[in-house]
Amino acid sequence: MSREKVLVTAALPYANGPIHLGHLSGAYLPADIYVRYKRLNGDDIVFIGGSDEHGVPITISADKEGVKPKEIIDRYHNLNKEAFEKFGMSFDNYSRTSLPIHHATGQEFFLEFYKRNVLVEKKSLQFYDEKAKMFLPDRYVEGTCPNCGYEEARSDECENCGALYQPTELKNPKSKITGENPVLKETSHWYFPLGRYQKRLEEYINEMNRQYGWKENVLNYCRGWFKDGLGDRAITRDLDWGIKVPLDSNEGKVLYVWFEAVLGYISSTKEWAINKGDENLWRKYWQDTNTKYVPFIGKDNIVFHSIIFPAFLMAWNDGEREKYVLPQNIPANEFLNFEGKKFSKSRNWGIDVIDFLKLFPADPLRYTLAANLPETRDTDFYWKEFQLRNNSELADILGNFINRTLTFVNKHFSGEVPSKGKLDDIDTEMINLIAEYPAKVSKLFESYKIRDGVLEAMNLARAGNKYFNDSEPWKSVKQDKEKCASTLNICLQAIYTLAELLSPVIPFSSDKIFSMLNAEITEWHKCGGENLVPGHKLGKVEIIFPKIEDEVIEKQMQQLNKTAIKEEPKQDEQITFDDFMKVQLKVAEVLSAEKLEKSEKLLKLKVRIGNEERQIIAGIAKSYKPEDLLNKKVVVVANLKPAKLMGMESQGMILAAEDEKGGLKILSADDLVKSGARVK
Hints:
This protein has three domains: 5-119 and 190-338, HUPs (Rossmann fold, 3-Layer(aba) Sandwich); 402-526, Isoleucyl-tRNA Synthetase, Domain 1 (Orthogonal Bundle); 577-679, CATH 2.40.50.140. The chain has 21 helices and 24 strands. Strands 15, 16, 17, 18, 21 and 24 form a six-stranded antiparallel beta sheet that branches. A four-stranded parallel beta sheet has the order 3-2-1-12. A four-stranded antiparallel beta sheet has the order 5-4-8-9, with no helix packed on it. It is globular. The termini are far apart.
């Protein structure tokens, strides 16, 4: 069989906090399952990861604690590395972007682009804190959104309504460092011209999709960016923390984290090569056209890996130096929520991986997450589902099949694999089924349908239990021991196959199963055959998946609800009747609705208010499908000043209320009320 050379990377997590279960489902667990499978498949594969240790989130965390950024990154890099190891992540190298080898790599790319005049230098106005004597990145400035009035909006974006605007439009800006009103001051930065590469990027993505079938969420995200048109994007910032811009004239500037972080995959592979004793070994994967490069990410990283990073590599490859490979596929996952709500550090909602693993083994968590991966839509982690997956599937299906088979062999065949004798149809059917499963699961894993592959593997355990029951070895051991021997031999071969098929998913438990079989794992394509020869002595039987009792789960749910921080209701500012009457609320009829591909939250609506038609951009896409809104009568703020959202003008605002789960419910009017009617 042909072997592939594969380079796999998993998104670099920010080292400003502990990773939680959502991070695992988004990028890390599916990558690890895929890598473990490919190793068993005999492929030449290297798995690269690391911590992203620059950028404003790091400095904000440091400022809050009154420490240096290095203290933050050291703490969380080590904490997350430990969590990954305990979870069973099998990185070949887990690096850090604060290392000299990464700084050198980032500066090498910048200088290559600078010397070949790829970069564009531009001047712009940026907020400057005169008291702190520093330029302020967008996360260091808060003010009132010019569109919706949200009072904690960033300098260029409102998280409340999704509006994008110029810093000059932000009302009442405040520095988060000193609390002072910052001034706008001119600064100069280097920009990467993404627009120059748009046509090539579109052709590249179309070709990769034609050959390898990219996921729709990735394609739709890219199409949205292409539709709006790619522009120049700044790659430097006025900060102290980060990779210094390697130009004497750019003192006090660092490389923007979004530019250099993706290069961490390359620098981490360089570090791996040095540790292997061959500093050029990394080129075998990054600079060989036979390499299949697959980055595993969450959907919030799609633009960086499908558009920005490939554009950098294209720009580099236009030069005279060695060429880099581009991603062959980008299997981005959606988000995992926790008990119906988004993970939230500020509200203490969720659980970090390192804390989870103090309570439970890694494998039940790996299996639960793998069986519910958010591959095509957002999914949820529920404590009750975790318990059910462990008890009903791992314990009652897989564990029960293993335990009853090995216990029976120990009791009636001296703990040795019995020989097969005569076979009937049910035996032949089970043998053929075992032989089919490695290829069946392989096909799903190869197409990045990890969840389906996991569920298929568990189906073999279901089939094994059914075969055991239908064969009734407790009867045949008394009436026809040769028939009983055949049944148990086939069950043992099924267990061996299951141990291998599930080893990428539950590696610790798989090792225990092989220990109980007193056997070693083989190559993937061989595991569906007769791997245990007659007379082979089995190992000691043990319970692999203890059940989780109700009170254990109840305790976790109670603890979660007890520690979750309830948001204190703000005292509403009182206004006069005259103030209220200034707001014109009117009934509008929705004529058309469509999603904005570049945004997860926004819908573009055309509405009729009386005899007038308007366009409104509304942040309700997560709560309503476009077709749900057609001909619906809604209440809008009709005299709101037009605002730009995602480059489109919004001529009003739809009124909506938030439900208990954080979804939005629009305020609708009775069908008998005419469009344009004033709401008082």
